[in-house]
Design goal:
Strand content: 25-35%
Order of helices and strands: EEHEEEHEE
Radius of gyration: 16 Å
Helix content: 10-25%
Shape: globular
Distance between the termini: 23 Å
Number of helices: 2
Number of strands: 7
Length: about 130
C-alpha cells in the first residue's frame, strides 16, 4: 500500500492552512508518524490548503465518528470496518478524539480510513 499525506508542523490549530511536509506512506510506521501531526490528503500550491490551490491526491480519506447512534453495539470499530471491506486496500488510524467524549456525546470509537487511489489532479474524476 502506498499513498501520500502532507503534514503541518502543528496539531490542533484550527486556523492553520499550511501543510509543507510531504510524507510517502508505505507502511504502518510511516502512517503512525504522519498522523501525529495535522495532515491533508492532497498537494496544494505553495503548501497552502484551499480549493483553488489543489494540485493532486493519491488517497481518499473517510472519518468514522460513530455519531449515527448512541447505541454502542451499533458503533463501528476499526476492526469491524476492516472486516466489512476485506478486499479493499485501506489503512485505519484512531482519530485524535478516539475514546473521548465530544460535543456532548459519550466517548466512542473514532477513526480515519485511508484508501489509496489512482492519482487525481482535479476535483472531478474522469470517466474511463
Amino acid at each position: 500500500m502506498k499513498f501520500t499525506l502532507f503534514t503541518a508542523s502543528c496539531t490542533g490549530v484550527e486556523s492553520n492552512c499550511r501543510y509543507p511536509t510531504k510524507r510517502e506512506i508505505q507502511d504502518a510506521q510511516d502512517l503512525k508518524e504522519a498522523a501525529r501531526f495535522d495532515h491533508v490528503c492532497g498537494a496544494y500550491k505553495n503548501s497552502y490548503r484551499s480549493r483553488d490551490n489543489f494540485l493532486w491526491s493519491d488517497v481518499a480519506v473517510m472519518d468514522c465518528d460513530n455519531d449515527h447512534t448512541e447505541n454502542s453495539p451499533e458503533w463501528v470499530t476499526g476492526e469491524k470496518f476492516l472486516s466489512l471491506v476485506p478486499q479493499v486496500a485501506v489503512a485505519i488510524v484512531p482519530s485524535r478524539n478516539n475514546g473521548k467524549a465530544k460535543d456532548g456525546r459519550i466517548a466512542r470509537p473514532r477513526f480515519h480510513a485511508y484508501f489509496p487511489i489512482p492519482e487525481l489532479q482535479n476535483e472531478k474524476p474522469t470517466r474511463h
